[in-house]
Queue: 2 jobs
Job 1
Amino acid sequence: MSIMKRISLIFRSKANKALDKAEDPRETLDYSYQRQLDLLSKVRRGVADVATSRKRVELQVNQLEAQSTKLQGQAEKAISVGREDLAREALTRKSGLTSQIADLKAQHAQLQGEEEKLTLAQQRLQAKVESFRTRKETIKATYTAAEAQTRINEAMSGIGEEMGDVGLAIQRAEDKTAQMQARAGAIDELIASGALDDVSQVGAGDDIARELDAMSSESDVEVELARLKAASQPQAIESGDILSESPEKTTTEDEQK
Amino acid sequence: MIVRILGEGQYDVAEDALEQLNQYDSAVEAAVEADDPKAFAAALTRLLDGVRTVGVPHQVESLDESDLILPPADASIDEVRALLSDDGLIPG
């Protein structure tokens, strides 16, 4: 029973020490109730804080995934125009993002877990605070000094333990969230500085995009030319003699120039 | 008896299940003493799973004190050491 016993003893003595003891036991009850309400609003704030961090990480995952999709598109485009070097570069950058996305997703899962835990802790504390309030009113209504102390002690020790537990849960969630916020902050800075999106913003200082862009405008010109040429052909067809007419026409045109 | 898993809540555990839980508990203690995080995590998981299996959730609105208090499921070996020291983890 060693570990369990030792933790129990120390935890309980700490939780009891944390309880205010007033001269009038009835005041003790009111003080304690006030502290319970304070702790309840603290745990509610804790849930909201963790949710904010979780949403921030979600946003970052979405941003990085969008960039990753763009890089994939660039790689495909590069391959289609025969530039394996560019495709390789795009895929290399994409794999850098992939590990960052995986890391963020793990953080997201952890934050979600903390959020659920704190929400449940809040519900448990809420239930106990409600019981305490009822018990407190009963004790105060039927107050006789002789038996009050025992009943107060019973109510207080049970709620004190719960408060210690919830306090610990809040502290652990805060610690974890703080670590992740530091990392999330670093990624936000990277995104804001453009170090991450340069890679995929077409025409905005990114070499892959610039080269692909240049190539695609070249190929756009070719496509347009081909279209114009094709558009001039039907006239030749209408003139009837396809096979001889059009080469002759070009020669004539050349001669005219 | 009432067993609390920190961060999780209270369970009612039958007395005759204690012998088994005590064995799991000794493994946790040995791992803490040996400073072996891997063995510790496995032993703690076994202990907490044991409580969850044999225990039933204690009435949530009760104001009963627990007989035993166990570390949170994701506690590290250092956190358990802190719980065992007087100026440890519990916010005063």
Job 2
Amino acid sequence: MKRKAMLIDESKCTACRGCQVACKQWNDLEGWSYSKTVNHGSYENPLSLSPQTWTRIKFTEYDDANNFRWLFLKEGCMHCGDPACVAVCPTKALKQKPDGRVTLERDLCNGCGYCSQFCPFGVPQLEIYGLFSGDAKSSKCTFCQDRTDNGLLPSCVKTCPAKALFWGDRDEMIASGKKRVDMLNKRGFVNANLYGENLVGGLGRLYVLIEKPEAYGLPADPQYPVLTTVWQNIVRPLGKVALGAAIIGIAAAWVIIRRNIKMEEVE
Amino acid sequence: MNGQPKESGYVQIRWIPKYTFIERFLHWVHTVSFIPLVATGLVLFLPSLQALAQGEAGIWMRLVHRLAAVLFIAEPVLYGIVQPLRLWLNIKEFGIDRDDLGWIKNAFGYYVLGKHADMPPQGRYNTGEKMNGIVMIVSWVLFVVTGLIMWFGKGIVSAEVFRWMVVLHDVTMIAAVCMFLVHLYLAVAHPLMWAALVSMRFGVTSASYAAEHHAKWYYGPKRARELYEAQKKHG
Amino acid sequence: MTNHWVDLKNADVIMINGSNAAENHPASMTWIHKAMDERGAKLIVVDPRFTRSASQADLFVRIRSGTDIPFFGGLMKYIMDNELYHKEYVLYYTNAATLVVPEFKGPADLDGLFSGFVDDDGDGFGKYDQATWKYQADAEGKPLRDETLQDPNSVFQIMKRHYDRYTLETVSSITGCPKDSLEAAYKMYAASGAPEKTGTILYAMGQTQHTVGSQNVRCMAMIQLLLGNLGRPGGGVNALRGESNVQGSTDQGLLAHLVTGYLKIPSAIDHPNLAAYLEKETPKTSYWSNKPKFFVSMLKAWWGDHATAENDFAYDYLPKVESPANHYWIKLFEDMYAGKIQGLWILGQNPAVSGPNARLEREGLKKLKWMVIQELFDTETCSFWRAPNENPADIKTEVFILPAADAMEKEGSIVTSGRLIQWRPKVAEAPGEALPDHQVFNLVALKLKELYGAEPGLFAEPILNLNWDYGKELDIEKVAKELNGTALAEIKDPEGKVLAKKDDVLKTFGHLQADGTTACGTWIYAGYYGLADDGTGRMLPASKRRGQKDPGGLGMYPFWAFSWPVNRRIIYNRCSADPSGKPWSEDKKLIWWDEVQKKWTGYDVPDFLPTKAPTDPGGTDPFIMRVDGKGGLFAPLNEGPLPEHYEPVETPVDKNPFSSRLHNPVIKIWKTDKDKDVGDKWGKPDKFPIVATTYRVCEHWQAGGMSRWLNWLAECQPEMFIEMSKELAAEKGINNGDKVKISSARGEIEAVAVVTARFKPFMINGKSIHQVGMPWHFGWGGIASGATANDLTPHVGDGNTTIPEYKAFLVDIQRA
């Protein structure tokens, strides 16, 4: 099955927040009554992803020697090709589908929050209902798994009035993203680039950026956390071996020692 | 053995106190908290138990883990509050000395093969029990630190630190559970260790047993050494 | 718009001035991006502030609020000096060659005034006698022309002299925009003067909400005429309407000086009877010479069988205004404030937040005897009587709140900025007892008829005889057919061919009659509800069509809905072909003369008599609504036939570089209660040195009634804020996010400071002047509440329309 991806063309985005609101509408998420936002001196609100905000626009006023730019970034789950969250999820609530989407089944989530701490981008948002009981649920953009499962566009893509969002086969998204970057370079945006082609196994969320990733606050070289591999591929298998060996060893010991040492002879 | 003939089928034992009520009670509290902790934790570790980790069931598992964790954390703290001197003395007893080396050399033959080997005198805790104690104390500290950070630390510590805590919690679990399985076997099933379980249940141990297996505790270190040297001379 | 939304993709250069299209018309960016990506079009954004639109632009040009005429004047000078105008187009299609009487004098000669200024009370403001603003004409009254464009009395030379003062230096000094930035913009836009290129200008309230608003728009029309952009794909003068059916509302005559279809409302003094009205208001030439057909058909629609030739088609039933009449907003609220208005019926508005000098206007609401308001939410106007700081016991107004159905909960049509009428179905049920506006009025009309039937009083006929047969539950289709127009008898053309049978729904206003045989509620809508093909052979009312065929690929989509007039997509499209009838360029060919079939043909409905050949008399007069058929470079409005720069009423400068006249001479500056706490007070730069403007943000809607009560939108923009430059913030010790107090002569409000590099101080006449801006969406109600920007704005409006000068006034700012 071909891998699917979302292309976000930040050279066309006007930061209208249609995507931010469409996502909330489709996924039944809360707004001001939950976040109680205030104006901190910017159009940007809320100030970060949250259990009730799965995508949002980040505003950056970027001044370099030659240009002033007002940069807009649509944040959300990157749907990595190597998703650390899936690797550490103990309940398989997080799954990487054959088409690359990293989906989340809320019913299976047990609220452990490992996903939120292992994601190189800090995307999954854990909503803690009881700090002492541990009752919690994780949430993040799923590329509208219920819509995309049924051949529909993600809600944000469908809404975008500036036609800055695209959904389709990943190689096509990359090709058109590269074409766009080329056009932007020619138009004077010398730092325009396509972000996400090869990062973390290749991101499912690709960006056409008009400035370098750092200008947007994006990590230039995000890494799949080494500890994920250490934990899931080394510690756990070895641990299972150790525990198994302990059980077997003890069973064997019981059998052997029974023959060698009789209770009646013990002082 | 204690001067009574074997034929009657009875064994008369002179009992001496070893563990206080508090110590025994808290030991069992520790046991009763540790087992659910392991069980509910294994649900996140073993793929075969995954169904219990998911959804509603999973949230219950985590709640039980936390309730048990409260007990687990409280137990030594309570011990320190109620009998601080004994806690301190017991901890001192876990110190390693030269005799522990000798125990290690002879342990396999003694405990597995049943050879009446030349065991150097042991204190209140033999070397094996010391190892168990150290593992349990260190793993308690590790469990509590990593566990509390995993419980309350999201957003307070960095993601990097959190990840280390998760991995360390797992590693500690593997070590502690292996240790626990050995401890369980020895306490419940090993013939030579029969007095241990009795003492943890009733607080008393057999004097002759203690004289044999915990000479430095029964006689005192100097006297135990003298007896050991004497026994070695005379074979 | 003269063009339409999709057509933006055909432009070679796009100028956004006085609009923040990306912010407030986000869907427009689809077409603008298409032009930029597929045609290599350039986008220029002109604004005091770097906006969301500016983030998309190739060129951002920063000018002070209220200096659009200098900017445009400089552009016109640049175009004329460098001969970048579209020569053939200007010569044949505009009145550039037309001669004006030599008595005409302009501001260059009369120090800021045109000839004919009359100031009765000596206060510096008055009106013009326009006698000297006319063409020289021959014995038959045809205007004289000099096709060499050299005659000093030709419009072209008059324009050159007029804009000669608008040099780069002067324009730069008064706008605060550096010369190289101006020149870059001028060069980029003037490139659309090449015959094969077109440019489009998009504008909105940033142009209109000034005391010189109408002249701002005139500038844009003149520039588009000079560059040959009007009536062509990717060109036009394109107003981005401010809300989803304001276009429909003005089409239906919801402006104080109009009835439907942009026909003037009759005055009891100037038009005592129908003949007087038709005589005075009907020009001898141009398509408007058909006005009697439109007006009489409207009367027939309204009074049906009671409107006959014998009773002047019930002309006496039609309410009339005085002369001169002023029932515009500001006057209305001044009258309310003076206690002259008993009752106010409000729909779809929140004047407590949106009105200029809002504190005064809210006081006006308190003087009403009664108020009815149809609303979705309990807005600041619904509850003006229990606003914070109000004591309900002191307010005697009886308030009726009628819950209204919103746009999704009723069926009907909405008209886009591009004149496209799209019929929409009802898709949701209104909650509780909420009713569509049309049903409310239906019930009111039926009740009024009942009451007047029982007690007729002095003159109940206009109401009793009003044609009102839509049913108890209003049948919107009946209304649609009435607006569209129907034949009341068989309609034949002069040769006897049958154009329409009795009771036919009319296909075009070309079939309307002045003899009472047709009825038509709104003549420009004729055809919108008639059956039409959607391109696949399916017949349905035109505005319901969603046909997607696009012959020609220019985005005209003639089978999609209905565009007035008569489904024409680009008006004045005769201009898209040269004088001989050939398109100016192959890729923008819209209509052309077919010599074989002897008619105009192409991808749009020709805005021209289809059988009039280019060589026929009038064959090169594309502006069919104008008396001389030529585009009006020189075209009289109240303050002059050419735009001249005047400063906003509250201006930071004391000298106008173009003349010694500081302000528009024909405006009315209100001074009610000017010494009281609430009143028409005016600020000077000594106390209020900062230029302020108001605007909208994407996340909120107008006066906030439809957005501040919604959780998702309130979350995005929760609080009232004011944007200011880092330099101003540093001067005042304000940090980003601090609360600040903003005061004007009329009031004081609090807001959060957004300190940003998107505003910068201006160098005006050698002095550094700061500008700030704030959204006007906020009021005390709702989830996202905040202070009302309009507490600060002034009660003064444009010289022609009196649209308030919301866009440029003076304030001062303090940390709170």
